Sequence to fold (408 residues):
Amino acid sequence: MSDTSPLLSGLQHKLEELGRQHLIRQRRRVETPQAPAMTVDGRPMLAFCSNDYLGLAADARVVEALCEGAARYGAGSGASHLISGHSAAHAALEERLAAFLSPCLPSARALYFSTGYMANLAVLSTLVGKDAEIFSEELNHASLIDGARLARATLRIYPHKDLDQLEALLQQATAQDRLVVTDSVFSMDGDIAPLRELLVLCERYGAWLVVDDAHGFGVLGENGRGVLEQLALSSPQLVYVGTLGKAAGVAGAFVAAHATVIEWLVQRARPYIYTTAAPPAVAHALLASVAIIDGAEGRQRRTHLTQLIGRLRERLTLKRWTLLPSDTPIQPVVIGDNAATMAAGATLLALGFWVGAIRPPTVPAGSARLRITLSASHTLAQVDALADALLGIEAAALAPASATAESA
Fold:
């Protein structure tokens, strides 16, 4: 096949432009289970870029449950949930999740999805239609943005955590069906949405509140019930999305809401109806994971994670770069320039530290950053080592500017 096609040439020019802007993304080959110490592209690496917040992805009990599930249910589900793919493992997981969240959402059912992306597409495209108005936080995850677009509703974007602007938009709304959607923990900044106040507004103006707690479920709250527990949130107008591939360590996601909402999703949500169900073994493994999250060990892991967050913030006294305010495992260091961010990430890699270098369009232009993520599997010594490395890299970046200023 010829590689001189105008179509291929057009794509190649676009790729070259991404390269000039330092926006090319690169996959790295992980050769070991998820853990702080991994082998990446053949090299030992200390990783600070995984969302495995509680260190459950390679936990022996979860792995054993996955194997047990495969032995019991086979490798695949065979069909969609509404044909023959809804196994006893899926049903048990949904019941366990609903029970786990019942102190916060007493009338809730849970619905399991293969991915968080699919769950968000399903909720936003099914709960309201083209005659509705959706009010979306400007820093929402791509899956929420795409779900809102798929709904074909009128879309209003409100500024980050700006309650006054959101209320003004709600006051101006003319649609009968209204929906406010937000991340709980913002994945690139690590801060938490003002959810108590958002829920008050939604109840005042008759709007659904959809909360994507991808980075809070399992991590926040004394018992790991996420922002629902930490902020004491409960309402029949609240639709909660939790991810099971981050703190829970496995894969998939769920929606928890009033039983009527869940039944509507089962009947009408295209991302749920028209896809093969996830392997039952995955759901079986998640039962073991949720049990750990809900127990004394889960509380111990969350306590240790909180200690690690405090240690990093205490040690990382930056002079030029900015450590954003965050009490969550997401600790972003904003550098600003794309090339400088890539250079810092490359230097860390050379030193044996793997930290994500995040650039536009994932974050706004001019705010490229190193996204540090902590896990309960990290040690205080590992966090200290990372802080020392980052301080050294920043000092080296400052040195030329200091030398030029002195010579002038």
